[in-house]
């Protein structure tokens, strides 16, 4: 699994780890996997995926990292269930020291980070080449970004899984928010802009989710995705060595990140869903990606 996940999340997740690992530590053994669900790539849909020598042991279940032979996307298998998603993103997630911040904002709660979030929201809005129409923010939390988007001239709507955060956005900013998983949401499009800010990496089936988003979007609308990106050459080399020589490694914490995208995998996913990338602002481990429907 990637250096980003190891370094950025490990210190925040140790308290949420589960029992001692039950997976074998030798590559010669065949580690058990829960269930018989499909192992197709969650980014491009390709059938040829292989199990990487990395896994989480969370609440008595093993979650392996699989890698696509086509687009090189990495994802957690088996998929996180809807109920597990709700537990992961409960009120503790947004509290002080919660995993929402991933070490940023001095580990403050979402509520106490408004000033920082406003500044970040304005920077993100500067990446969007339009200033009017309807904007949908998926995973909107307490609505700070949507409020800034509204001030900038957009008509706004949010989708948020956490009920308390959704209600905070409504009561604080008067914003309409659908309390739902993206996969279960019913919204009335079209939208000129859709944003997923530090969200898509957490979605168990991102290809299906983006296909759904495309049905909500204006025919030439913009999609802005912000989040971690596995773009480190050193990290890729280290992973390749471990695939060849082992040993199998238990990852710290729990499978909060269901996906680790790279530029190749996210471009493949977007192309399948009817988008073309127009701008990319990327470092070795993070990116803002602007795409446009075609």
* DSSP summary, beta strand count: 12
Mean pLDDT: 87
How far the N terminus sits from the C terminus, by CA atoms, comes to: 33 Å
Helix content: 25-40%
Structure classification = alpha/beta
The total count of helices amounts to 8
Largest sheet: 7 strands, mixed
What's the shape? globular
Q: Show unreliable segments.
A: 1-22, 24-36
Radius of gyration: 19 Å
Proportion of strand residues:
25-35%
Strand order of the largest sheet: 6-5-4-7-8-12-11
- The ordered H/E elements are HEEEHHEHEHEEHEHEEHEE
Describe what this molecule looks like in 3D.
- The chain has 294 residues and is of the alpha/beta class.
- The chain contains eight helices and twelve strands.
- Strands 6-5-4-7-8-12-11 form a seven-stranded mixed beta sheet, sandwiched between helices. A five-stranded mixed beta sheet has the order 9-1-2-3-10, with no helix packed on it.
- Helix 5 (163-173) links the parallel strand 5 and strand 6 (177-179).
- Helix 3 (114-125) crosses helix 4.
- The longest helix is centred in the C-terminal third of the chain and has 13 residues, at 233-245.
- The radius of gyration is 19 Å and the shape is globular.
